[in-house]
Amino acid sequence: MSGQVISTDVLVIGGGLAGERCAIEAAAAGHEVIILSLVPPRRSHSCAAQGGMQAALANCVKAEGDNPSLHYLDTVKGSDWGADQEVARIFAEEAPIAVRELAHFGVPWTRVKGGSNSYFIKGERVDIDEQLENDGLIMHRDFGGTAKWRACYAGAGTGHSALYAVDSEVVRLGITVRDRAEAVALIHEGGRCWGAVSRCLRTGEHSAILAKATVIATGGHGRIYGQYTTNATINEGMGAAIALNTGVVPLGNMEAVQFHPTALSPSGILVTEGCRGDGGYLLDKDLHRFMVEAEPEKQELASRDVVSRHMARRMRDGKGVETEYGPHLWLDIRHLGEEHLTTKLREVWDICRDFAGLNPAEELIPVRPTQHYSMGGVRVNKDGEAYNMAGLFAVGEASCWDMHGFNRLGGNSLAETIVSGRRVGRRVAGFAGSENLEVVTSVALDAVKAAEQRAGRLLANTGAGPGAYEIRDAMGEVMIGKVGIFRTGDELAEAVSGLRALHDQCDQIVLRSRAPGMNPELTFALRVKGMLRLALVTAMGALARTESRGAHFRSDFPLRDDAKWLNRTLVRWTDDGPELSYEPVGLLDLPPGHRGYGSAERIEMEKTIEQYNEDVVGEQAVHGRLETEEEPGSRIRWGDWGGQQ
Amino acid sequence: MPAKASKNRRLKFEIFRYNPQDPESKPHMQSFEIVEQPYMSLFIALNEIRETQDPSLQFDFACRSAICGSCGMMVNGRPNLGCRTQTSDLPDVITLHPLPVFKLVGDLSVDTGTWFREMAESTEAWIHAKEAFDPSAQEGRMDNELAQSIYDSDRCIECGCCVASCGVANVNGEFAGPAGLNRIARFAMDPRDVREDADWFEVISNEHGVFGCIGMMACHDICPKELPLLEVYAYLRRKALTAAS
């Protein structure tokens, strides 16, 4: 029924790992929680994470000496110093707890087998004796950009097992899940969020869900790249879009877009980094292992941004395998053998068979870099509170917390979902416990009415207007063509004007279906304008950032520039359109330096670390950072870099 | 197997249509024709039909890589995931129905979420832990082979294909169904769960549990994740017998 109003203590928008873990924390504290999810929660895209979850447990020989400080160090280097270092520190210290908690929830982690084990390391078969005293502890595999083997895994279905375990806790606690439901607008007034307008994807009806605390946990927005993404069809970024639509909440670092080196060509389906972690190679069309010269130290296991650029260059230099769908390179895991491939990489085996018709024990896998992860998202403080909006929180890929900066390390996102879900969930619980629901019903009903009118206007459009799917396809082509791995000022300027034009067409979309109920065409048409806003601010951020950092690479400004650009892009959608501003990345503990892979050349910062740090707290407050429970910097362990830098 | 070369076949789709939200809608079959492309899955084909021919067509896809379990449907009378079904493996005429047993949302879309949540609640499909989680403690140990066995059952993606294929589940709404039995086995074999054989006896040993299965084993044949369901039922029957003795 239209105009229905429901009240709860906590509303979590998104039923993936981050949202559910957050919901568990709030429910366990005694709050009434509602989870809204586009799909039954176990179908959320967290389930597609394959290879692992980073946590410095140091359980196997190749992980000896590992500790949270080294994990922190790898994470900051991986981010190309774009991360908030305090958040990276909190993350690295709590990741071991998150992995062990998942074991408590039932994840069947792959375990250490004491005694002789055979591995592939940098192209060589190596026999290593795992210590008998570590037998049965959680095992690690190697991943990109890390000093130690650190990724904990359950076969190649780590995200699936983690999501099922966490969702089983949601069921145990009796948390209400409204699946097939979408948040289409936030209900807010005077800088305070009071819940969201929900559209039912069974009936198409709108209702208001009022909440003391609202959490955005809708995952990434890879579908702004159209079909050129590993992401699920549901990763359309509507959580970030409704936050942007408030006009006051900024998104952070939207230009930081990760391309995963090994998506299956042409379908774009992810093939885990665990393949290279377990010893797989990248080959060009001449079956040459080009990464050995490109990155002598890390080889195939440099960070994703670096490997993707080497691959893109290789293909640009004519060393890709040409097909009617464009060029690709090869991933070779034949030498790992069938037993390894059907156990530790079982999901890869299935994907190769089902989607490429090949046997990876005998054949090469066609791969190419493809959009994979959104480092950018709803900008929040270290407690997960959105800038400029009390009562609004964000967790996981939907947020910019910001431990990933300009490049996320493989396995760090799964760990982030649980670490941030636990922490932000605790803050949400505390917040909901101290607040009353003090919103006049008319604010909620007006928001519902506005959403209904928007749908009504689209249904009423007639004539020769554009179709929603054509606009989507045009957006995807602009994004992959001009806002991809290599970017230039000219192309980005074209992207901005092209995306702006597409955005302005969205209100003229003419639907061909007026079917009662959820109407899949209407459902998508309601989303595509938000997607275009995310695409446009991504392109604008990329155009303005005249340096190269992490995944953001400007061919016309190829150096990282710590003098001018050691900052985070913020973007708000004002009455006059998008407005960019910049805040410091956060308090610096680890001084900017060389990552140990990729280019060593950079423009040094002019300020001292002390000078930089002096302005951080004040400048972030000016940009809307809400006050945190503990003062900024409280969790930094100054100079504790695990015995090395 | 995905075919690398296009045969440019004209494919005829016969698709079940019914929109419960539309008082005028009546269940019927509707025909569509498209030209086959290389690597064409039902994910690609159905989206093409919706985007170019009938934008009201309802179906569910999310990951399109056979891991989320959204897209179970009857393909020429046999349940499968739409995303991993390649048109090159199918004849010129492709008939699609929604999965039976589950409540219809519209056209090919069914409500598996409610069914699986109820199953999880009725079988208490979560770890019944000995004690609360201790964040300062090292993880409990587990033999890797046992972890692998649990993982083998944990791989179920709750797509509902087995339930749709099950003769018993189709007529007995109380039957746990293949996915439900697998879920029970997954927790029963997990030493982190304190439930004993006697606790499981009630859940397993009546006509809604493993003895409700009449052994046609379509579930085993069609499971898109190739779960070892034969072994799962044997394990549960043994467990029921030891609990009873």
Describe the structure.
- The complex is a heterodimer of chains A (645) and B (245).
- By secondary structure, chain A is α/β, with parallel strands linked by helices.
- Chain A is built from 16 helices and 23 strands.
- Chain A has helices at 17-28, 68-78, 85-105, 158-172, 238-244, 274-277, 291-294, 304-319, 337-341, 346-356, 412-434, 441-460, 468-482, 489-505, 520-544, 609-622; strands at residues 4-13, 33-37, 53-54, 115-121, 124-130, 140-141, 151-152, 176-179, 181-189, 192-200, 206-216, 251-252, 257-264, 281-283, 329-332, 365-374, 377-379, 392-394, 399-400, 560-561, 567-574, 577-584, 602-603.
- In chain A, strands 1, 2, 8, 9, 10, 11 and 18 form a seven-stranded mixed beta sheet that branches.
- In chain A, helix 5 crosses helix 15 (520-544), helix 13 runs antiparallel to helix 14 (489-505) and helix 14 packs antiparallel against helix 15 (520-544).
- The longest helix of chain A is centred in the last third of the chain and has 25 residues, at 520-544.
- Chain B is of the alpha+beta class and 245 residues long.
- Helices cover 34% and strands 15% of the residues of chain B.
- In chain B, the strands form two sheets. Chain B has a five-stranded mixed beta sheet.
- In chain B, strand 6 (103-106) and strand 7 form a beta hairpin.
- In chain B, helix 6 (177-188) crosses helix 9 (229-244) and helix 7 (197-204) packs across helix 9.
- Chains A and B meet through helix 3, helix 4 and helix 10 of A and helix 2 and helix 3 of B.
